[in-house]
Amino acid sequence: MELKRLLNIKYIIIVCAALVLNIILFMFQATAGGNKINEDSKRDLRIRTEYIENYKSNIQNIVDRAEKLKKQRLFSNPESFSYKNIIKTGKDYEKLININLSADNSKAVRAISKYSMFIGISAILTLLLMNNLFKERDNNMWQLTYMSKNGRVYLGLVRIADIFIISLIQHFLLYITVVFTSFILFGGLGDLYNPIQNISEFGQCTLVINKAEYLIADFLLTYLSVVVATSIIYMLMNVFRNRKNVFIGTGAFVIIEYFIYINTESQSIYRLLKYINICNLFRINTIYMEYINVNVFSHVVSLRYVLITAVIILSVMMFMISVLVYVKRYPNTEKGIMAKISDKINVEYQKIFNNYNNLFKEIHKTLLTSKGIWLIAAAIFAAVYFSTTGYVTFNDLQIQNDKLYKEHGGKDYTYIKNYVDSVLEKTDNANKERIEAQKKYDNGEIDFEEYFAAVSNYNSVSNSSVEIAEPMEKLSYLAKLKKETGIDGYIMSDRGYEQIFGKQSTVREIILLMSTQFVVMLIAFASVYIEKKSSMDKLINSSSGGFKYVNKKKLISVGLITLLLTLAVNIIEYTNLIRYYKVTYFQAPVQSLTFMGDIKINVSIIGWLLLLIVFKLIISTVTFSVTFIITRMVSKWQH
């Protein structure tokens, strides 16, 4: 009965939406920017080949070093942790000596091991599930539970079982969609039975397992991290009546932990706060990539097993406390002092709130009463996340050219033109000298050393001509642009701008646009639905002119929120990208960028960015207007 009640159509739709979001996030991380897996590149192939060639010798060195250390006087005490750790290290790595590595296709498994967002999605879905279990508190139906003998104990245990079953299923669906997507993108399904050590990040893994076994272990371990995180919140939801305060407090705690995690250096005196941090739960699978032993009651134990054991024990304890609290919690009890204080503050706030104008009240209802503030926070987080991840790292030649553009480029690029002409002239002269030396050498007029000097000089100069290939192409493009359109373009780099609003930004722009429109739709829907939920729509529609007046105020408030949200998302996105790529020349004609050569309007780069923002504002306005009108029409029709 409980499972049937929980697995309603609304929750199933949310899970399906989460699966789609999970695939989008994985594809973005696995294929975009700095996280792109470039195993096909020559440089990466060389690194992987060197890693495989040196693997056995590196492992043998660790084993030999452990053997030497245990004989040294400093580590000779058999009862000391250092001695026991050396013995264990040698035995653990000795098992890896006979592993045969190969340069197989490890892209898919490597991408999966780097992706952890699905753990957060799984935890959020589990929290929504838990919240549904407490919906009976809202309508006081939970008092019926206490009328049956042992009803609370039975129901408390059944609910924990339901949480385990449903959360396990949805976590499996999230994980398996990532696995399927990864193998569709990168292939390598036939290499699953090869050692996990084929992936260089797992070079320190002392488990003799293949990649298929790693995926199974990774699924179970990430599920445990979800269980321990959600079990703590479930316990708090049982202890405290107000679930809203639990979620707000948890959210604030997670945000604080995140900022501590990203801003604390590994060498800081506060580094303990970085390691004992909830963020590590969402990257718990990295324990397979590291080799760390700890002292547990004079026994040397792998940190991997200590963490797994601690997670299991903590989860069991939290669920046991939840059941005990649920059994002892009665619905009709006197309010605590905090609840009384909260009620008093709310009464005073309502007195002040009563003096606000109706437009502000509508904004208040949309943001706070309808929980729209959480949707806005989610959209802002998406903007921050997608504009600060997936950065591209350019090669040395590209960085050198970008420096040349910044120092000598722009509207007046005489220096670059003269530089290119001088290199071309040197190359042409060196080529003529090489041809002339070839003829003289064939005729016996010069010896080999003179001929070799001419060839070496040409090769040296020709390398410079390779470096100016891009500036030459830019100069040619600008000359053509001037001739065909009359536009005086700037010589500048396309690279940063391509990442901001060019073809390289397509995935990011689509994700942020879709997420913003989704939030706008939900806010518009909630602004109308809240009245229907409280039956206030009947009072509004029955009064003379009430519907039109409230509808106008609500339309203005939601429209204002929509415009400000869209503006904030775009400002955050473009500001972060501009800061990272350090792009300049915003006053330049947008056609100065080679990928914008087909644009027919005369506008600067900053003007183009403003046009993009205006276009997105129009899309958001249309989205909220259509959603609002349809929702209002359906609500009025039902009334």
UniProtKB/TrEMBL annotation:
Keyword vocabulary terms for this entry: Membrane, Transmembrane, Transmembrane helix
This protein's name: ABC transporter permease
Lineage: Bacteria, Bacillati, Bacillota, Clostridia, Lachnospirales
Organism from which the protein derives: Lachnospira intestinalis
Residue stretches spanning the membrane: 12-32, 115-134, 154-186, 214-234, 246-264, 305-327, 373-394, 510-530, 555-572, 605-630
Domain of life: Bacteria
Record carries keyword Acetylation: no
